[in-house]
Amino acid sequence: xxxxxxxxxxxxALLTGGIVGLGGIGSSVEAAQATLKFKDVPxxxxxxxxxxxxxxxxxxxxxxxxxxxxxxxxxxxEMASILGRxxxxxxxxxxxxxxxxxVPDWAKNxxxxxxxxxxxxxxxxxxxxxxxxxxxxxxxxxWLTQGLxxxxxxxxxxxxxxxxxxxxxxxxxxGKLASSQKNAVAxxxxxxxxxxxxxxxxxxxRTTTRAEVAVxxxxxxxxxxxxxxxxxxxxxxxQVGLTGTNINIIAPKYKKTPEKKVSPNVDYSEVTxxxxxVRNKNIITDTKYADLKIKNWIIINTYAxxxxxxxxxxxxxxxxxxxxxxxxxxxxxLELNVKSTTMxxxxxxxxxxxxxxxxxNSPTSDAFAAYAGPSINDVTKNRGVFAVNNPVYWSRGxxxxxxxxxxxxxxxxxxxxxxxxxxxx
Length: 425
Description:
Shape: elongated
Order of helices and strands: HHHHHHHHHHHHEEEHEHHEEE
Number of strands: 7
Largest sheet: 4 strands, mixed
Radius of gyration: 25 Å
Structural class: alpha+beta
Number of helices: 15
Oligomer: single chain
Distance between the termini: 85 Å
């Protein structure tokens, strides 16, 4: 009697419903949708086209009962094997060894190739991949964005640039986004590779399903062919990470204030249009009720449509809302050191006396509430009196372009430099 030899790919097929073949994403998704059908994947299913395309290209196949099981989770070993077979993925510059001790025999080769191609870094693990556990979305984001760094070194730079950025997911605002996954989540969002759910969470701890993997295969292939600089959202995330603001991308007409328009009490040699020079520094205030720092400053054009919108639009602005007289929204994340036990919101507004960065007001949109962004109401009690000594919250103001009401935005840091910009023609 002959012994039956089962290859790694065959074993994987048995475990996952059938991942076969070595092809890439070649033919159209629409054609695949027209030729392949599963009982549990109706044409109205959100991932129907991607599922059928992935099956046509040989990454998946259906089960014997005519189903695909789109909601079934995918294990780390299974996903690693899929990633290892992406034909157009180059090898990583730095090669690491597969030293995992818990990978089943059928998946060892696939995991090794996924490591070779830069998706998985064994040095970030402690000898065990937990290979047969369901892959969670946070780890998926890490694998995919690491893979992008093998395609284009600029993606590696992008992963570094977003270290201090504001990530447009609910977990960021609630403090539940792990620092080890923050950068990957930011790049995954900035490229459109992954997105938030209806509840505005990224879901780093949610398992990845077969349907999601089918979609991600196609998305990854598209992103890998695109330069990081071509993604406006990623550019914003990088700029906020590096400087603390996206104003240069959303409102490029705001440039360094000319000397004749700066207060004569300011040494113009100390004036800069680089917001990073005053970010997280104590700002000189008009009143002494509190010390004030600006952690981040987000500008949003409510008139922009589609790809021209800020990646932060869904966080701060309700769909369809527009401002009057061509103004843009200005949202600043503030950190105060309150000096008085009776300081209130009105007195907070007097700290800067600014229509652009106004510590008295916070975003009131349904969108901001859905993302659980911290507002002034979270840190004040009766009659607007601050209930905490060191509140951190987001303020709401306006950035004007109308010549009748336009003025410079100037912030003087106690440590030295003055940030000052104004709209130009």
